[in-house]
Amino acid sequence: MHTKTLAELSAGLAAGEFTSVELTEHFLARIRQHDGRLNSFITVTEEQALAQAREADARRAAAQAGPLTGIPIAHKDIFCTDGVRTSCASKMLDPFIAPYDATVVARFLQAGMVMLGKTNMDEFAMGSSNETSFYGPVKNPWDLACVPGGSSGGSAASVAARLTPAATGTDTGGSIRQPAALCGITGLKPTYGRVSRYGMIAFASSLDQAGPMAATAEDCALLLGAMAGFDERDSTCAEREVPDYHAALGGDLKGLRIGLPREYFGEGLDSQVAAAVETAIAEYKKLGAEVVAISLPNTHLAVPTYYVVAPAECSSNLSRMDGVRFGYRCENPKDLEDLYKRSRGEGFGSEVKRRIMVGAYALSSGYYDAYYLKAQKIRQLISQDFTEAFKQVDVIMGPTAPSAAFRLGEKKDDPVAMYLADIYTIAVNLAGLPGMSVPCGFADGLPVGLQLIGNYFDEARLLNVAHQYQLATDWHRRLPEGF
Amino acid sequence: MMEWETVIGCEIHTQLATKSKIFSGAATAYGAEPNTQACAVDLGLPGVLPVLNKEAVRMALMFGLAVNAEIGKRSVFARKNYFYPDLPKGYQISQFELPIVGKGELSIELEDGQTKVVGITRAHLEEDAGKSLHEDFHGMTGIDLNRAGTPLLEIVSDPDMRSGKEASAYMRKIHALVTYLGICDGNLQEGSFRCDVNVSVRPKGQAEFGTRAEIKNLNSFRFVEKAVEYEVARQIAIIESGGKVIQETRLFDADKGETRSMRSKEEANDYRYFPDPDLLPVIVEDALIEQLRQGLPELPDAKKARFIEAFGLPAYDAAFLTGSRAMADYFEQVVESANCEAKMAANWVMGELSAALNRAELGIEQSPIGASQLAGLIARIADNTISGKIAKEVFEAMWSGEGDADQVIEKKGLKQITDSGAIEAIVDEVLANNAQQVENYRNAEPDKRGKMIGFFVGQIMKASQGKANPGQVNQLLKSKLDN
């Protein structure tokens, strides 16, 4: 059953080939069997999952099932789940049992999906390799010595190894797309405001966006339909109709204008990754698309801009983790200052502390104009680059990441090298655009991702552009050995 | 001897009278059990997001219109970052660079009858913090977050006031304004209206300001005056003895009548303000401003002018009676119900009633004698049922809850004697018993008789236990003595 896509599982459930309980037991068994090697789950909620599966089967018996009813899903441990530990992969929130469901979680529950558990991630979503997790790194199922990417590394690895048919992720600077690329699955970061952020533990509020991770673009279309839409509890959530993404799949790509930014094919790009991406572009030409050379001239400013804006916001967002009301508290604090210093000092890992310090510095009086304000101005310029580009093209393509999966420990002590892993994904978050990664080949046996960037709220087109490619190729069907 | 000038600016925190909090749906009612009126948003749990209460915006705009201020058509919420146990998120959502209300002005009445215009620098919306409770926790501190998230409008004045009296007049005027507007309940005891004053002194004629001290959390008009007076004397004494005033935050000890330095460490706080990415800028449409302008109630200055004009009241009386909306409403109701001379109603409200309220430390809203009851009393004076003197006795009885005026007059037999036969009998008796005085009166020069007649009036009133109608007594006496 696990080799089927989510869409195929949906059809199987509808046809009565298997029940949700059978499906859920199958994936729970796979988690028990394989996750010891991957470490992709922080928490597995077996009992709740089976209860939800029984409920889904009852719903189906009552003819009240939707396309997602009864299908298992795993949630990144950044989404609050009522009554279940929500740790953000941090010692700080290790004891935190959320008293409510995030909007995304609630919407999937409403659709009848079955939650298998909570997936591992970089601590507070800060990282590109999943090595900053308090619960230990996640391994890439294609090569256990390699990282799965991050921060949604547990979600990507568990989908790649088919321990779950689908997972949620969040993407602040590439955290859905980069691990999707490194693990050979399909991931979508929607337009900022498309999906509610309520209940999703904030890293950088103006950049964070939740999205689906699954085997195919079709699966992502089904999932996005359930996730997206206005939520009165998130002021930044767009009050805008949600199209039927699944119904919008179809229609050929004749005349589709694909922009190839020359800045995405320059120095630092692995040659095998470049070759895989070029082959994918050639495939698109065969499907009738036109290719247009474009420029995004401020691309080189994206990483430095991001590393001012994101730390600034996180330095404030993480202030609530103070040892007073929930989460980790140090032993025997002497006084209030000691309580703060030791609870935070002991509760946060080093990458989180690094970013809090960078962010607090960037917001300090005397430095605010030179860093935070300037970064906001550059952010405008980066957005304008895309606005100009979308006057000429319908979709922008390039590599998702500059290389395939790197080895565990390889970049762990070199933050700048690690930050450059997101060099092609970060600008999309700064501009608030939707972006996807789809499998497009291999480099030395490791998956390569093709990045697709769309215009604002153009997810339906983006999904179809990916879907048409997947109808013509089978990269997304390849499974890692041993799982 | 150096002549000194005092410079005062005020920051007034008014709690807006919304039903729910500024960024959550929790209730704002005062006095509930600790932490029963704090929802996930108020607790600052991971993942929650603020949603702006539009009613708070409307109220802030009403204030802006009432002080003729520039309205911030686009205002921005910012985060003020600092750690404190009763500040759940580790930052307060406030407004910094772009407040909702800009420059405005307000006129205050001085003791000499002059008016003075005080500049309003700005007014901005923000959320209140919770409360730290230091008692009953055996050396630990309890946190009550019921107040966290209560909407505040912080009104900042220009440094235009020159004495404690001016500062308290300003505070009273703002208090009158916000209660007239119905945007604040004005309850000083419960902390709905509190004032921080910035006080400095400088040699008269010097342009630059002296070093200021900020006296926090004054919740009475009298305390403002006293705190300023104490602080001015303290600062002058320091300077005249060769010392320097240091910039600091001080607290006013009402029992001792002095200010003292807050013990908290004087570290230069860097609040690292930046725009809150969870909230969109507040855009105010002209149509809303116009709608609110049309709906503004009659404000204190306009009401005062009308009281002078329509009721023929002296300016002093009009100012007193329009000091609060409750007082003005009470007075108008008395005039209407009693159908009496406005001045007579004014004398009773400002005299007997206000004195009794002050003695009992009650606001007019808590008066045991309602407006229609007081009107009932005044009506009995106007229609000669009782004399003004007897009325005071009736008032006392009404105050102690012995019923309304007619009941008291009936029960105590205080009705004025207007039966001319009955009065004549008393007059005759008094004249017969004081033959010598009658003789003296008749022998006296006519211009001396006026004084002498008082003796007889006094005797008659005594004999009638104060109930004889004084006008009829005078008339009868004159006709009997002068013939």
CATH topology of the domain at 6-252 and 454-477 in chain A: Amidase signature (AS) enzymes
CATH architecture of the domain at 6-252 and 454-477 in chain A: Alpha-Beta Complex
Structural class of chain B: alpha+beta
* Average pLDDT reading of chain B: 91
Report on the biggest sheet of chain B: 8 strands, mixed
Count of extended strands of chain A? 11
Order of helices and strands of chain A: HHEHEHEHEHEEHEHEHHHHEHHEEH
Task: Give the overall silhouette of chain A.
Answer: globular
Tell me the structural class of chain A: alpha/beta
Q: Which term fits the overall shape of chain B? A: elongated
- Percent of residues in β-strands of chain B: 15-25%
Which spans of chain A of ≥5 residues are poorly predicted at pLDDT below 50? none
Strand order of the largest sheet of chain A: 4-6-5-10-11-9-7-8
What low-confidence regions of chain B span 5 or more consecutive residues with pLDDT below 50? none
Structural summary, described in words:
The complex is a heterodimer of chains A (483) and B (483). Chain A has 483 residues and is of the alpha/beta class. Chain A has a domain at 6-252 and 454-477: Alpha-Beta Complex (Amidase signature (AS) enzymes). In chain A, 38% of the residues lie in helices and 13% in strands. Chain A is built from 15 helices and 11 strands. An 8-stranded mixed β-sheet of chain A has the order 4-6-5-10-11-9-7-8. A 3-stranded mixed β-sheet of chain A has the order 1-3-2, with helices on both faces. In chain A, helix 5 packs parallel to helix 6 (177-183). The two termini of chain A are 13 Å apart. The model of chain A has no long low-confidence stretch (mean pLDDT 97). Chain B is of the alpha+beta class and 483 residues long. In chain B, the strands form 4 sheets. Chain B has an 8-stranded mixed β-sheet with strand order 5-6-9-1-10-11-12-13. In chain B, strand 5 (104-109) and strand 6 form a beta hairpin. The mean pLDDT of chain B is 91. The chains are: A alpha/beta (483), B alpha+beta (483). The A-B interface holds A 79-80, 86, 88, 93, 96, 98-100, 102, 197-202, 204-206, 232-236, 312-313, 315-316, 318-322, 324-326, 336, 340, 360, 363-365, 368, 372 and B 40, 43-52, 79, 81, 83, 85, 88-91, 143, 270, 272-274, 277-280.
